[in-house]
Design a protein that fits this description.
The complex is a heterodimer of chains A (about 230) and B (about 100). Chain A has two domains: about 1-175, no CATH class; about 180-225, no CATH class. Chain A has helices spanning about 1-30, 35-45, 45-60, 65-75, 95-100, 105-110, 120-145, 160-175, 180-195, 200-220, 220-225. Chain A starts with a helix and ends with a helix. In chain A, helix 1 (about 1-30) packs parallel to helix 3. Chain A contains eleven helices and no strands. Chain B is mostly helical and about 100 residues long. Chain B has five helices and no strands. The longest helix of chain B is centred in the middle third of the chain and has 24 residues, at about 35-60. Classes of the chains: A mainly alpha (about 230), B mainly alpha (about 100).
Chain lengths: ~230, ~100
């Protein structure tokens, strides 16, 4: 099962390693010892928020502001659990860790792929989450530790995230086989880009969910077919 | 360099991030079978996936040479995926093509 979980999360490795390294390189310019980048990868585990943190720490930003900024930056995650309520059982501490580790990439994978036949579900999800976080922590550490000395040319590797989401979008299409959610997402994205470009992800996701609920409650056809 | 400040910032950001991931599990615990919730659970992932793809592609300048590389890499990713349906292979193929282009 370890091998299957490794293979399943390998696309995340290609995305997290270069991004983590980029974070680490930025972080070490603050002058703190490298292992604080490791600590941030372990305790915070949120890409965009950690990048933002570098700027906030450099500016000596106040704690309340940091709390609010982090919450809003990550607020799209508020919706991610919705799709996994049924997938996660009452697995105690392990479940808490799965919730803690629910990043964009992990959510995308978990909400799309099936757990392999015969695999222990909580264990499989746990491995997926801990492997993904390890890649991130490894990247943060390497970047902060080796800094600019790191020679391998990772330029362009960031495309891995786009490729991962694209592939999972195809898989979602194969699963759902109905156009409505995709069309709704397109419309919601357009609205969000026009009106709330700074917080595009949060608004696009909220708007799309609201449109779907309204359609389901008001349109008999949507209610019956979806 | 202020270690104490940094440690408090890390603790706060850790808590704030967790606070964005936890609420659905607390709010809807026990209501998993509710029809509307099941509907949302089923249709949120395709919508989020579409939105994430749009988000990743929205700031690309499609008239630049890099925009051209993105389009090619996307075609490779989608093509390989439709051909073999192997997620890892499609992602690696698309990423490698993109890396070769931008580094050359």
């Amino acid at each position: 099962m370890i091998r299957v979980a490794l293979k399943t999360t390998l696309p995340i490795f290609f995305g997290y390693l270069p991004l983590g390294i980029t974070f680490g390189v930025l972080f070490q310019e603050l002058g703190y010892p490298w292992y604080f980048a490791t600590l941030m990868g372990i305790c915070i585990y949120a890409g965009a928020a950690q990048f933002m943190a570098v700027g906030l720490i450099a500016a000596g930003t106040g704690f309340v502001e940091i709390a609010i900024a982090t919450f809003f930056l990550n607020s799209r995650h508020l919706f991610y659990g919705l799709a996994l309520l049924n997938s996660f059982g009452n697995w105690g501490l392990r479940k808490l860790y799965l919730v803690f580790g629910l990043t964009d990439e992990v959510y995308a994978l978990m909400s799309t792929i099936e757990v392999p036949k015969g695999a222990d579900k909580p264990q499989f999800y746990f491995l997926m989450t801990i492997f993904s976080q390890s890649y991130w922590v490894l990247g943060c550490t390497l970047g902060a530790w080796a800094g600019t000395k790191l020679v391998f040319n990772k330029q362009g590797m960031e495309f891995a995230a786009t490729a991962l989401f694209t592939v999972l979008l195809i898989e979602q299409w194969a699963k759902i086989k109905k156009p409505l959610p995709f069309v709704v997402a397109l419309i919601a994205s357009a609205i969000a880009l026009l009106l709330f470009a700074q917080q595009m992800l949060l608004f696009a996701i909220s708007i799309s969910i609201i449109i779907m609920i309204v359609l389901r409650l008001t349109n008999q056809k949507v209610h019956d077919e979806y | 360099m202020n270690i104490e400040y940094l440690l408090i910032v890390i603790a706060i950001m850790s808590g704030a991030t967790f606070a964005t991931r936890l609420p659905p599990f607390v709010l809807f615990s026990g209501n998993e079978q509710h029809q509307l919730l099941q509907f949302i659970a089923k249709y949120t992932p395709p919508m989020v996936m579409s939105i994430l793809v749009i988000y990743m592609l929205k700031s690309v300048d499609y008239l630049s040479i890099e925009g051209f590389y993105v389009v090619i890499a996307l075609i490779v990713t989608i093509g390989v995926h439709l051909w073999r349906r192997n997620a890892l292979m499609s992602i690696v193929a698309g990423t490698v093509v993109f890396m070769v282009f931008v580094q050359s």
